[in-house]
């Protein structure tokens, strides 16, 4: 089971920017088209884990398109909040994708329970599915500590409150090239490439 | 990513009979030891799908043992019961594993809702996980029709009420060699071997 260089991959997303990003993360060796460009519907993300949701999306896109499909799911988990927001990371930001609101919610929840535990981690799950065939899943994880208030305007999502282990700056402050080399997403893609590309 | 012939695999089960069965399904090319023989604890099966539970068990066994691990999860789904018993197939039989009881329960549920729809399917999910690395998942599925009362004492579980498409006998009546060649489990292992073995 291999991803043959030059082949076309369907990215289980309707966001063309994400497809370009995946092309770059796979070193330009694949043509990545979005499920949206093939008019495939988006499935509900009904699973309980990052990997489950990535697999559901990749399976759906592969079986409907008849082509090899790739999907991801990612988010931030807070130890003191029993892993929340986790798979609900995007939903905490609401329909307006207001991550300022979502980061305040994390801070408020920690204050409510009176916990000093600031441990958190980012997870990126990737799934590659063959039509009606096997699927490969990998996860990348970066551990770190939360800090409030948010710092830095690089990155996105919860990046400004997360200081990865071994660093002093948040993901919102770090140099993008450095962040891209140590991120959960980078780790997940490195595992995927080791597993499926010669 | 390949399963190299001669390597040892950890089967995420405490049942030595299951390990022997997996050895046979992999044509004797691997030494299969149980998670039980390595004193690994059994994780709770908390996922919502067959594949999710197989993956959870394989991941757990691989990460704890440091060796490549294989897990399966399987069951019967009834169309008119919205897929029940599904991942709860074994649990419907209770602690005594009384599948006579479980099959009566299926029949009673169908009578309660007054449905004539007798479509059902068996699913077998397999997962192979590398320690802290990737995992491969496959599913095999066989569609068929339910019949009551149960017929045949070959097979196990819900086999005596399930007639696979293209056959006139239940899985409980069919010649074991024939059943083993068309079963959901056979399909899943065929997919797994095509994916991971040269």
From TrEMBL, chains A, B:
Q: Which cofactor does it need?
A: Mg(2+)
The residues that hold Mg(2+) are 44, 73
- Give the keywords, sorted: Hydrolase, Magnesium, Metal-binding, Nucleotide metabolism, Nucleotide-binding
GO MF annotation list: dITP diphosphatase activity; ITP diphosphatase activity; metal ion binding; nucleotide binding; ribonucleoside triphosphate phosphatase activity; XTP diphosphatase activity
Catalytic activity, as annotated: dITP + H2O = dIMP + diphosphate + H(+); XTP + H2O = XMP + diphosphate + H(+); ITP + H2O = IMP + diphosphate + H(+)
Listed GO CC annotations: cytosol
Instruction: Tell me which EC number(s) this protein carries.
Output: 3.6.1.66
Q: What class of enzyme is it?
A: hydrolase
Active site residues according to the UniProt entry: 73
Q: Where does this protein hold substrate?
A: 13-18, 74, 156-159, 179, 184-185
The record's note on quaternary structure and interaction partners says:
Homodimer.
Query: NCBIfam families in the record, alphabetically?
Result: RdgB/HAM1 family non-canonical purine NTP pyrophosphatase
Q: What does this protein do?
A: Pyrophosphatase that catalyzes the hydrolysis of nucleoside triphosphates to their monophosphate derivatives, with a high preference for the non-canonical purine nucleotides XTP (xanthosine triphosphate), dITP (deoxyinosine triphosphate) and ITP. Seems to function as a house-cleaning enzyme that removes non-canonical purine nucleotides from the nucleotide pool, thus preventing their incorporation into DNA/RNA and avoiding chromosomal lesions.
Q: Which family does it belong to?
A: Belongs to the HAM1 NTPase family.
Under the heading PANTHER family, the entry gives: INOSINE TRIPHOSPHATE PYROPHOSPHATASE (PTHR11067:SF9), INOSINE TRIPHOSPHATE PYROPHOSPHATASE/HAM1 PROTEIN (PTHR11067)
- Which HAMAP family would you find in this protein's record? Non_canon_purine_NTPase
The protein, known as: dITP/XTP pyrophosphatase
Give the source species: Brevundimonas lenta
